[in-house]
Write a structure and sequence with these properties.
Layout (H helix, E strand, L loop, with lengths): L2 E3 L5 E3 H10 L5 H21 L4 H12 L8 E5 L5 H8 L4 E6 L2 H10 L4 E4 L14 E6 L13 H6 L1 E12 L5 H16 L3 E14 L12 E11 L4 H4 L1
Parallel strand pairs: 3-4, 3-6, 4-5, 6-7
Antiparallel strand pairs: 1-2, 7-9, 8-9
Length: 243
């Protein structure tokens, strides 16, 4: 009643389950953005029910990569949502945070946190990031690299706005419904590394990423899906810029 199974002995409320499933579908982009606008008020409650760990895992991974205290580092949070990643970064000493998101409703919630120095609307993929080249010490995209969301080819745009020597932190899911996308993403990441555009600092697979919304996605019947955090460091001379 009001909940459905998400694996062996796990129960997930129907509302969050359906809303999360909806954003991973193949609906047209304008329709998904309208969904996010409407979801903004319930988003944090839903991801709490999912036990969604990506924001804290990504922030911890990025903080560990920095060789010096991060307070003066300028960071761009792509697909910033309501501000979950910004809160985790702020806890770890990052203070100069900019954010972009395709949803006006999500941006309104993010603005209310007071954690960002700048927030702008941008749909990464169809649109370039609203920033000059080599502008940020680090760029994060957490939760948006997935099937039906930001295309894997957009990682070159993340690279463009990162300073030489700066860091890029990305996440994706490893559940069955996202494996095709994950393979495309990792192929793109490896191509850029082979070109000398960046070097891999970290690729951490995490078993309990979030609770599954479909029993078929559950990792070995645990009720959870797995995911991965990637951290790359941009090389001082990028072939993308030289070309």
């Amino acid at each position: 009643r009001g909940a459905e199974p998400a694996g062996r002995g796990m129960w997930l409320p129907v509302g969050p389950r359906r809303r999360v499933a909806a954003v991973h579908g193949d609906s047209p982009l304008p329709e998904r953005l309208r969904f996010y606008d409407g979801w903004a008020a319930q988003y944090e409650e839903d991801v709490a029910a999912l036990e969604y760990r990506a924001p804290s895992l990504a922030a911890a991974s990025l903080a560990s990569a920095f060789p010096a205290p991060p307070a003066v580092a300028r960071l761009l949070v792509v697909a910033c949502g309501t501000g979950l990643v910004a809160r985790e970064l702020h806890r770890r000493g990052f203070r100069c945070l900019h954010g972009v998101d395709g949803s006006a409703g999500m941006l309104e919630r993010a603005r209310s946190t007071g954690l960002y120095r700048e927030l702008r609307r941008c749909v990464l993929g169809p649109e370039p990031l609203p920033a000059p080249a080599e502008h940020y010490d680090a760029v994060t995209v957490v939760g948006a690299l997935g099937e039906g969301q930001v295309p894997s080819a957009a990682v070159t745009e993340l690279l463009r706005v990162t300073k030489p020597g700066g860091f890029l932190c990305m996440t994706t899911r490893s559940d069955p419904s996202n494996l095709r996308y994950k393979a495309e993403l990792e192929a793109a990441l490896e191509r850029l590394e082979a070109q000398g555009a960046w070097r891999k600092v970290l690729a951490q697979e995490v078993e309990r990423w979030e609770r599954a919304t479909a029993e078929g996605d559950s990792t070995q019947g645990t009720g959870y899906i797995s995911g991965v955090v990637y951290v790359y460091q941009k090389c001082p001379l990028s072939p993308l810029e030289e070309g």
